[in-house]
Predict the 3D structure of the following.
Amino acid sequence: MTIQHPIKNILITGCSSGLGRITAIHLAQRGWRVIAGVRKDSDAQSIVSEARALNIQDLATLNIDVTDADSIAHATRELAGLIAPGTLSAVVNNAGTSVVGPLELVPLTEWRRQFEINVFGQIAVTQAVLPMLRDHRRAHGRGSARIVMMSSIAGKVSQPMLGPYTSSKFALEALSDALRMELAPQGIQVSLIEPGAFESNIWAKGKSSADAMDRAHPAFPIYDQMLKNLERGVDKVAKHPAIAVARAVERALTRSAAPARILVGMDAKAGAISKWLLPTRLFDFALRKTFGVPGSIEFPPR
């Protein structure tokens, strides 16, 4: 059963490219008034131009860096000026990035950057807009205000060479579960979207972080082949059209009872089922085979 929102103002973060941009365009075409969060003026101009080319008139942009408290505060004030009081019906916390590499070689600065964007940024934006969502719920009833978190199958299934990314998504799942229960008495619903490997520039960001690793590190030869296997695997599987993710976001916004989780893609569903059914050792073995992790390796001389 779906609901018809009387007001369809929605904030989506991370709309400069990838899933956020596709979701913003899709929802704008479906009648939502989208406020697309971007980081740069050039990104704002680009998405507005795309919207106009598709004859979409009701799409605004908002410069916001989810890792910067001042940027979030300024964006929140600007958002309040873009829409009438009590009319923000939803926020999609989509901003994210991927840091790739073995735990041993990824610098702590990169681990912190991963969590600043994928976890703390989502918390900060949610804290900033919750009063506006409460105003909407007060005006339009229980269930009329929604929060959607863009997670991943990586929030259920950790993968070798993707430790920073999967750790951040596991954390996002946990905090979203807590938030869903905390907001239930307030009548604000929370959903997690868990895509598999879809077309997105997030994988390019991951490759960039891997390329930036210290290849002179004495342990790098241990992991070099695994990194190459991961890159080939991502190039092979990350081909599914991202529009399926945008449609999942729309379901989370329009179902009368917002789904707690929506797995998107057969690979995501297969991964979740396998993780649930298989013993850990067998599941680890299957993942290691998938990602080209060798059974054993000789250490280079110290």
